[in-house]
Amino acid sequence: MARNDLIIAINQVCAERGLDPQTVLEAIEQALVSAYRKRFGGGQNVFAKIDPKTGAIKVFAELEVVERVRDPKTQIDLARARRYKPDVQLGDKIVIEATPKDFGRIAAQTAKQVMMQRIREAERAHTFEELKKLEGEVVLGTIQRIDRKLNNQVVVNLGRGEGILPRSEQIPRERYRQNDKMYFYVKDVVDSQRGPYAILSRTDPRFVRRLLEREVPEIRTGAVEIKSIAREPGARSKVAVAAIQPNVDPVGSCVGVRGTRIQAVVNALGGEKIDVVEWSKDPYKFIANALSPAKVIDVVLFEDEDERRALVIVPDDQLSLAIGKEGQNARLAAKLTGWKVDIRGEKEAEAEGLTPEERQRLRLQYAQQQADIMARAQALLRERAREKARKTKEPAASAEPTSSRETEADKGAEGADKGEAEEEYMDVDYLDQLAMKQLLEGDQED
Fold this sequence. Notes:
446 residues; alpha/beta; N Utilization Substance Protein A, Chain:P, domain 4; CATH 2.40.50.140; GMP Synthetase, Chain A, domain 3; 4 domains; 4-stranded mixed sheet; 23% strand
């Protein structure tokens, strides 16, 4: 390879692969030094330089000037050293050219090997970056093969790289055939020794969320928010949605005209059924909605330190529908709401003494329990505000001399502190009940 041809080849490859020419030149120089040491010997005092304009390759050695040479690879005598540098003295270091006569062929082979290695590294880094951009997103992939030796994991071509669908992320009883196209959720990206690849999933609840975001513009724009998702992959999912903007039907937006939007999500999931229910801050209403399509007569809530339990009363003819096949509907409703759901038929509930009057009494009892928690939390926050006001006032009082103006200032500060305490007390209305309960329990433990 001619000298100019070397620079032309480097510049062309770097332009095509998006590499930095200076980085490639430095890598070739390092490889040339290794090749030189392997062929001709030499210590750490050898380095190579490539002229970026002409492509001229030269090898240099840094030698110590001595009176008698014991190691020609690291030392040079004074007389010879002064041929290169007349004012050199004993003990000085001098750099001389040490390029062998037949080094051109070795340099050409080394440059080719380094460029191929850099191309592979650049392609690997580019593939990893492209796959990393897809992390947390839904992608359309083509199934390449099913690896029977590795527990039937599926290898998927994603266009930008390769993905692996482990057995644990496959939908039960779903069949995968070579060259089939389907959607996957990119769960993670791994840079292994054999190259970067994406870990895919079809069972992750975030897969359902991303599919809904693709199909429902109101979710993408923020008019509708997905509050929670409960899923049993391959069978059924429940999605709780809420309207962020007024005059927006959250459930209707997700279902679409004649169910077109939700049907597209169902098809992407391989026929998995999806129930879209309206989220509510009121747990009574939310639990009733979560048991859809069953109709709910009444909900009674019980809460203690161990768990939150909801007793749901449904018409007798809706009992099996509310429970679902093998308890599936009740399980999904419990996951969706965060409440343990206990379902009773109307006649069974009355036989257990849960008459409408008793249910009303239990509701009032629960409401009183929550009111007590709220009152204790408010008292605690009010006390904290007063303590904060006292700590703020004490340093100011010790820093200033006593005067009538100070007294007036203290009164003003006291009024401001009182206002601050009152303001923090008023903010209690915006706190979540559960958060305040946890706050109380934490203080009691302290």
